[in-house]
């Protein structure tokens, strides 16, 4: 490492950012998990019923969809409206806060579509070089079969 090495010139971020990071960590955990991203994206165009969401978000269990919707509702991102019909009808919709999240989620989806071939090629090269095949013990599944990429 020499004087031109950028690691020598970048000041350490240190502990002063730790409280700010700790404050937003739960929010990022909620909005950054796979199912929340897919649900926010699915609700972007407008209110949806539970079974419509389940059908359109392939691979999500009824329990996981229910838990994730409840968490998004708790965080003020989704509203749940029950209609007094027979049988009862329940719609889920993004709140104003949820709509503000939808825009970056859509941008993330566009990025994923645009770069999917590059990422899949990089994964194949890595797997071939490491002899690991299609498994990735340290992270998410291959983008080629990932429900996140397929739905975005």
TrEMBL record:
Residues 125-152 are annotated as: Disordered. Residues 21-120 form the HTH hxlR-type domain. Coiled coil: none annotated. Keywords: DNA-binding, Transcription, Transcription regulation. GO terms for molecular function: DNA binding. The keyword Glycoprotein does not apply. It holds the Pfam family HxlR. PANTHER family: TRANSCRIPTIONAL REGULATOR, MARR FAMILY (PTHR33204), TRANSCRIPTIONAL REGULATORY PROTEIN (PTHR33204:SF39). This is Transcriptional regulator.
């Amino acid at each position: 490492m020499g004087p031109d090495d950028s690691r020598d010139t970048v000041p350490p971020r240190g502990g002063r950012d730790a409280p700010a990071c700790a404050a937003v960590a739960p929010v990022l955990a909620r909005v950054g998990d796979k199912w929340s991203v897919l649900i926010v994206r699915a609700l972007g165009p407008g209110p949806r019923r539970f079974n419509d969401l389940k059908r359109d978000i392939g691979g999500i269990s009824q329990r996981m969809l229910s838990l994730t919707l409840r968490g998004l509702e708790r965080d003020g991102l989704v509203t749940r409206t029950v209609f007094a019909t027979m049988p009862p009808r329940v719609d889920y919709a993004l709140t104003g806060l949820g709509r503000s999240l939808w825009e970056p989620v859509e941008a993330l989806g566009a990025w994923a579509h645009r770069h999917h071939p590059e990422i899949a090629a990089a994964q194949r090269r890595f797997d071939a070089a490491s002899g690991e095949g299609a498994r990735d013990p340290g992270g998410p599944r291959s983008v080629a079969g990932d429900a996140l990429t397929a739905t975005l």
